[in-house]
Design goal:
six-stranded antiparallel sheet, Penicillin-binding protein 2a (Domain 2), 716 residues
């Protein structure tokens, strides 16, 4: 039991909380009273043109109306503007505000300015129309220009007669509207989103998902209703000032977005596909760096009109063999290099249904590893038949454990939930387990598939994809979205180790060996699924994909590529994922590898043997001075660059260095000044670490087969 002091302390705390709640309640009540009093005062006591607003509104059609707030901005991960609101203005004129003397003295000047700057009428026509409205008993307000003007144009017009607040003048009005501007458009248009022109609310993408934060709070001010239903602000002061919307800071990197869209657009155009999607995500955090969605819009043009990444679900095809293999390994602990199945000649019948492999003539006997690497449907079916046909619920429970039966929970509206059948479904049949094992009879979005591959890259820890990292009010951070990582892995470390090896094998030996890289290891899986059209899977119509991560030894990025219904050209054009989706992955990965030097590895062993013991390298003119000062063998004078190595005591061996070709030069032994000069003249982007002379370089000397133009130098 608690002591007497404990009981008294608890009682005191409770009383303190009750007192605080009462105080907050009274403060809110007082605030409400103050707002009410302010509105009464504004309406019945504050004056405009010598009358209270209530009196003025009786004579004139005045009312309190909401004044829209400026919408918040959307930023990329490097603080580049993705969307902002720019003010534009209609120029209007209340023809009956100015007194007669001022009007007669200034109308001609105003008409000339309108004619020379707007050009929609002559000076005489402007003057006649304004005078006609001034004399009219039913009309008084006139828009002087049909289109809106910019802020800079408005500042210029404010010096004109009737707009410059001269005594006894006035009448010039500016009706403010805000237009959304996206500096990088059309890049990431569907991801950033759009605004409904009528309501001013976000209706797609980030604009819709964070609409409440972005829209701000409207102000309140007096407006006058004039002909045509237009609302004209009365006076400059507002009763309640609008509060600007909050700024949204995303995880998108527009350099990555550009890489993804260029590679995707090129392949879509080449293959005449219906649509495509690329997502690039950071493995450790789930931060989405690029989300590209392009749809064919006639005549081979592709635009962002639908977010397939989040809302476009389909049968994933063979990329789903990854969770199937993980379930097999978790359940049986089998050695995938020893367990074998006979896939025969590439076609088998199962319960009246034909199961085929893509290779004509079949693969014959395969290990479980080879089944995965070569993407054998028959092999997966035989493994499922051997280990899971007697316990289908166990297989389904693994899919749930792998986060495949629920949405990812990304903070973006419109994510379509996955459809993974269980045995309670009316659509469950006696061959559902087989079809599901290699990615049919289900619906998943690209993002949901990528989340699993990302978890494998992250050593089994599932990470929620995220596309917004902060909400700010000016520079103040109001809400910070932290990465969400499951505290328990989705499977055992041994299973992760085995499937990682298999995913690398797909690229090295299997269905995607055409995208193998000399500089870094890609790990991933191809997927080619027949399209479901009018309830039937249709041969020749494919949903192709490649999902994976890189560099495989220390994964930093995961990525998925979708190409829908490629058509291709010529008899030899292959419609499968290895030839369609995988090359897009490779192009995006190559460009990211070249851009992000943190994932590049110095190529020590590729340096020529003659460079291993280099002591000095650089311009021959500089080396000549060094050799003279150190009493060494004189440096050569017949070459611009040279390198020196000591091969005997007191003896120096000089070797000419060629830096004129398009190849990557050998920089071993050079000072940073010389190395930087040579590389930048060749168009390379140079980064470095350390100080002293070059001892390692991320691109090996010789032909630049990769085309990468970023190089990391290690100095010592």
């Amino acid at each position: 039991m608690g002591t007497k002091n404990d009981i008294e302390s608890g009682s005191n705390n409770k009383k303190a909380l009750i007192n605080r709640a009462r105080m907050v309640g009274w403060l809110l009540f007082c605030l409400a009273i103050m707002v009410f009093v302010k509105l009464i005062r504004v309406q019945y006591y504050d004056e405009f043109k010598g009358k209270t607003w209530a009196e003025y509104s009786v004579k004139n059609d005045l009312k309190l109306d909401t004044i829209p707030a400026m919408r918040g901005n959307i930023y990329s991960s490097d603080n580049s503007l993705l969307a902002t609101s720019l003010p534009y203005y209609y120029v209007g004129f209340d023809t009956k505000v100015a007194d007669s003397v001022y009007f007669d003295n200034n109308i001609d000047k105003l008409a000339r300015l309108l004619a020379s700057n707007f050009g929609e009428n002559t000076a005489g026509e402007y003057k006649a129309k304004i005078k006609r409205y001034r004399k009219s008993k039913t009309k008084r307000y006139l828009r002087l220009k049909s289109r809106q003007i910019s802020h800079l144009e408005r500042e210029k017009i404010k010096s004109w007669p009737f707009f410059n607040k001269d005594r006894k003048g006035g009448g010039g009005k500016f009706e403010t509207i805000y237009r959304r501007y996206k500096p990088f458009s059309p890049m990431a248009d569907r991801t950033v989103g759009g605004i409904d022109p009528k309501s001013g609310r976000g209706y797609i993408g980030i604009e819709a998902s964070f609409d409440k934060k972005l829209e701000g709070k409207s102000g309140i001010g007096w407006v006058e209703m004039v002909e045509g239903g237009m609302k004209i602000p009365v006076g400059d002061a507002l009763n309640v000032q609008p509060e600007a919307g909050r700024d949204v800071y995303t995880t998108l990197d527009m350099n990555f977005q550009d890489m993804a869209e260029i590679a995707l657009r090129r392949k879509l155009t080449e293959s005449m596909a219906n649509f495509g999607c690329v997502i690039v995500m950071e493995v450790a955090t789930g931060e989405i760096r690029a989300m590209a969605n392009l749809t064919k819009r006639g005549d081979g043009k592709y635009e962002e009109v639908f977010n397939y990444a989040v809302a476009g679900s389909a049968d994933p095809g063979s990329t789903f063999k990854l969770p199937t293999m993980m379930a097999l390994l978790e359940e049986t602990k089998l050695d995938p290099d020893r367990v074998t199945v006979n896939t025969g000649s590439g076609s088998v019948r199962f319960r009246g249904t034909q199961i085929n492999d893509s290779k004509r003539g079949g693969h014959g006997v395969l290990t479980a590893t080879q089944v995965f690497e070569k993407s054998s449907n028959i092999g997966v079916h035989l493994l499922m038949q051997r280990y899971f046909f007697s316990k289908p619920d166990t297989y389904l429970s693994y899919l749930k454990k792998f986060h495949l039966t629920t949405p990812t929970g990304i903070h973006m509206k419109g994510e379509k939930p996955p459809y993974i059948k269980d045995r309670t479904s009316k659509r469950w049949s006696h061959y559902s387990l087989t079809f599901m094992s290699y990615g049919y009879e289900m619906q998943m979005t690209p993002l949901q598939t990528l989340a699993l591959y990302n978890a494998v890259a992250n050593d089994g820890y599932w990470v929620r994809p995220m596309i917004v990292r902060e909400i700010r009010n000016a520079e103040e951070i109001e809400d910070k979205m932290e990465p969400y990582v499951e505290d328990k892995p989705i499977c055992s470390p041994e299973t992760i180790r085995k499937v990682k090896k298999m995913l690398e094998g797909v690229v090295n030996e299997g269905s995607a060996k055409n995208i193998s890289s000399e500089l870094y290891q890609i790990a991933g899986k191809t997927g080619t699924a027949q399209k479901l059209i009018n309830g039937q899977y249709t041969a020749g119509k494919y949903y192709t994909s490649f999902a994976g991560y890189f560099p495989a030894d220390k994964p930093k990025y995961s990525c998925i590529v979708i190409i829908d219904t490629p058509q291709g050209k010529g008899a030899n054009y292959t419609l499968y994922a290895g030839s369609v989706a995988a090359p897009v992955f490779k192009e995006v990965a190559d460009r990211i590898y070249a851009y992000d030097v943190s994932i590049q590895k110095p190529v020590k062993d590729s340096l020529p043997e003659t460079s291993k013991d280099v002591k000095w390298a650089g311009r021959s003119s500089d080396l000549k001075i060094i050799s003279k000062e150190l009493n060494l063998t004189p440096a050569p004078e017949d070459t611009e660059y040279a390198a020196a190595s000591l091969f005997k005591k007191g003896k120096t061996k000089w070797t000419p260095r060629s830096v004129d070709s398009k190849d990557v030069p050998d920089l071993q032994g050079m000072a940073m000044r010389d190395a930087l000069y040579i590389l930048e003249n060749k168009g390379f982007r140079v980064t470095f670490k350390g100080s002293g002379k070059v001892v390692e370089q991320s691109l090996p000397p010789g032909a630049n087969k990769t085309g990468i133009k970023t190089i990391l130098l290690t100095l010592q």
